[in-house]
Amino acid sequence: MTPLVDQHRRRRQMTPRHLLMCRPSHFGVEYSINPWMHPEKPCDRDLALAQWERLHELYASLGHHVDVIEPIAGLPDMVFAANGATVVDGKVLGARFRHAERTAEGPAYLSWFRDKGFETLLWPEFINEGEGDYLLVGRRILAGTGFRTDRRSHAEAQEFFGLPVTGLTLVNPSHYHLDTALSVLSDDEIMYYPDAFSPGSRAVLGEMFPDAVQASHEDAAAFGLNAFSDGFNVILPEAATGLAAELESRGFRPIGVDLSELLKAGGSAKCCTLELRAS
Ligand code: ARG
Known about the structure:
Helices cover 27% and strands 21% of the residues. It has helices at 3-10, 45-61, 105-115, 151-161, 199-208, 217-221, 241-249, 260-263, and strands at 18-21, 65-68, 85-88, 91-94, 121-122, 134-137, 140-145, 165-169, 182-186, 189-192, 213-214, 228-229, 233-237, 253-257, 274-275. The strands form five sheets. A three-stranded mixed beta sheet has the order 2-1-15, with helices on one face. A three-stranded mixed beta sheet has the order 3-4-5, sandwiched between helices. The structure holds arginine (ARG). The site of arginine (ARG) has 16 residues, from loops. Residues 33-34, 37, 77, 80, 82-83, 102, 132, 177, 179-180, 265-267, 271 line the site of arginine.
């Protein structure tokens, strides 16, 4: 452990967050837009609901404020609230989805923000799938591209938020969103799966985060990087045991969750969670 990581380890502290989630009342795997989705295989909506409720309760019990958006019939992936927008400093960058099956979610999420009184909203020109591909680390934004979010959206986000945006290219279809390959742990710490990125992007991550936790193939395949951290508690799929051990040694409190039904659509804890950052 480097002296810097050790320094961080002693000072871990959670900060309460404002989150948005969407109950999987209409969840199902009805089409396939990523390699995890097999519509022909059975999927249990009641179990998905029960697993989601546990995640919802967990956030509340940890002291986070959780809002929920009304799910819409015919939008089975709407449970993945992370994709609904990107919110930093109270500014809302709307999501414009790549696939026709999800396009209606963008305006639905944006209206929720309008109704709640958020004033600075942008309906984007370019495709971006919200926090699926945009992750805030301190005052910098890491931005995925390669499968979903258009590279041109990165400039749009930088201009809108007035924060530096670093583009990262994803190359492994199983990790089609940035939040399936990289997770933000604190204001200056991340964990990621190197093989999900192009060689250049891997080098950029090495430059920016030399002390980052690097996930094994097994943990990445268990969706372990689809994690939510409040600075101390890290909620992640329970199967990612290697990551949990590493997080613990760095002073975090890993909390494993079972979201097996949602994984059938290619999503887990972080995908179900959108963070609303006030100004
Ligand atoms: N079935 C959804 C899709 O392929 C899953 C989205 C997962 N969300 C996420 N933030 N990675 O679009």
